Amino acid sequence: MRLEIDVGNTFVKWRWVSDGTITKALRCLKEPFLSRIADIDEPELVLDELCDIWIGSVAGREFNEALTRALKTRWDITPLFAVSASSAAGVRNSYIEPTRMGVDRWLAMLAARHQDDGASTVVDCGSAITIDYLSAQGEHLGGYIVPGLQMMRASLLNNTANVRYDDEDLLSIEPGTHTGACVNNGTRYLLQALAGQLLEEASKSGSQLYITGGDGYLLQAQMPGALLVPDLVLDGLMWADKQ
């Protein structure tokens, strides 16, 4: 039995894996996660069967150290954290300092590589939207990082005195007739533009598009042929170097 954990900027996702089968998967906001360690047991788990805890985390050293202490207290197992490397499992990192790449991006690329050995574009729509390109030979060709939908909306609130709006769940991209619609539809309009650009690039290069992250469903809905893989980061843990 293995416990796999993906610690993002906002949410934590975890799942139990037994003999290659996912038996349970959950998520919660990052902040209360440490206090919930005692509540994340798999109901059928025999504690002696838990052998490994694998983690991909972008939360920073302080949170990771607190998480390690909590997991050791709960199960007496030292977790293994995935690290971004110069190469792993057929993927070669383009960064001069590979460990400076966010491990979530690295894990998502490793997972995508093992779904399809052709060229791929990996898009993670979370707090930030990250876009990474892999060649058919597994070379990381670089990428982009842009604000996610919530971050874009928050920046308008924080940096523009006269922009105030209710966080409405609007799906339209029509021009807004009040501030809430202008902000929500405007960010979705930008997401549509991004989707169009990615589709055009993929058509020219023959690249398979992989979408993950909390807002991934919004992007994938505008991208025929793109694959939505909600647990792409967790899937990459199998292929990553760990320490």
UniProtKB/TrEMBL annotation:
Its EC number is 2.7.1.33. Substrate binds at residues 95, 102-105, 179. Its main location: cytoplasm. Pathway: Cofactor biosynthesis; coenzyme A biosynthesis; CoA from (R)-pantothenate: step 1/5. It holds the Pfam family Pan_kinase. ATP binds at residues 6-13, 127. The active site is at residue 104. Gene3D superfamilies: 3.30.420.40. It is found in: Cytoplasm. Keywords: ATP-binding, Coenzyme A biosynthesis, Cytoplasm, Kinase, Metal-binding, Nucleotide-binding, Potassium, Transferase. Its cofactor is K(+); NH4(+). K(+) binds at residue 124. One of its GO terms (molecular function) is pantothenate kinase activity. It is an enzyme of class 2 (transferase). The keyword Chloroplast does not apply. It catalyses: (R)-pantothenate + ATP = (R)-4'-phosphopantothenate + ADP + H(+). A monovalent cation. Ammonium or potassium. PANTHER family: TYPE III PANTOTHENATE KINASE (PTHR34265:SF1). NCBIfam families: baf (TIGR00671). Homodimer. Catalyzes the phosphorylation of pantothenate (Pan), the first step in CoA biosynthesis. Belongs to the type III pantothenate kinase family. This is Type III pantothenate kinase. The gene is coaX.
